[in-house]
UniProtKB/TrEMBL annotation, chain A:
Pfam families: DUF1290
Main localisation: membrane
Keyword match Translocase: no
Subcellular location: Cell membrane
Name the record gives this protein: Small basic family protein
Segment forming the signal sequence: none
Keywords: Cell membrane, Membrane, Transmembrane, Transmembrane helix
Organism: Mesobacillus maritimus
Family, per entry: Belongs to the sbp family.
Transmembrane segments: 28-45, 57-77, 83-102
Membrane topology note: Multi-pass membrane protein
From TrEMBL, chain B:
InterPro entries hit by this protein: DUF881
Protein name per its UniProtKB record: DUF881 domain-containing protein
Sorted UniProt keywords: Membrane, Transmembrane, Transmembrane helix
Keyword Nucleotidyltransferase: no
TM helices/strands, residue ranges: 7-25
Amino acid sequence: MWLPLMGLVIGVIIGLLTDIRIPPEYSNYLSIAILAALDTLFGGIRAQLQNIYDEKVFVSGFFFNILLAASLAFLGVHLGVDLYLAAVFAFGVRLFQNIAVIRRILLTKWTSNGEK
Amino acid sequence: MVGAQKNLYFSVTASIIGFMVAIQFQTVSEPVNRDTRDTWELRNDLMGEKELQSELLQEIRMVEDTLTKYESEREMSKGELLKETLEELKIEAGMSDVSGPGIILTLQPVMNELGHEVPMSYVSPSLLQRLINELNMYGALHISIDGQRVINTTVIRDIGTVTKIDGHSLNNLPFKIKVITKGSEEAEKLFKRIEISDIVEDFFVDNLQMMIKKPEEDIEIPGYQDTIRIRYMEPVE
């Protein structure tokens, strides 16, 4: 459990240390990629808790979602429609659902643990 | 083993997410430079900027001045040149009044022995044309007959027993023929040549006496009054 958290911290530290900046016009893509990655991550955690976790699904979903979100945003920019909002909406909704499911599972686990 | 691998995947994913978040954070939250200058510093800075502005304005004004000067010079020179050319051409064509040294010839009827005018007083066009030809031969620049300027297209002809020069009748004698030459010397020459010319006798045959006055320094000849109509001339391509 602590390893992923540590990975997150390490990633943040590396990101801050490298002092990489992307042009402001591309920050949209990055933000949506982050959202997609978070969605995949929480989806993975939920699957893990529900015992339906699949390595391939998780890894492929991670990259595919990021790419899809970014390309959707790209398409939206070129079509003049804010398509990235669709991705934000979809990922946002999924994120909340996943977190809600995780919370419920954890709650049931915790209550069942407490009953024991 | 499986759990460790799972953990590894999650960690890698989490670290990538962290990395992206960090970059996004850095990109979005550009360090805000807070303005900590006080009033006086601001004032000084403003003064500096104002000076710069005034310098720039001055420069702009200078450049614009130069520009307008050039423009006006160009305009002026063009206009002046055109005007000069026009004047020259007008003088050459006989459209403008001219003055200069020359002689005045007066044609008048011959008196008979009793001091009476001989009734027949008719100026023949051919004689006038001959006179003009001779005058031109002897260096006349501008000629006027009875106040009518003689130019290249001037017509002298007989219309119903009245000699007309460009539509102006020459039926009231005496009249004056004014001739302007290049200079006083030429005027003198012209005077002498006309004096000994046969044309005086030719006029006498027509009962006309030609009085030749001594050259004068300032003779005025009016310009051609009508518009010159050119029908058979075209500019060369």
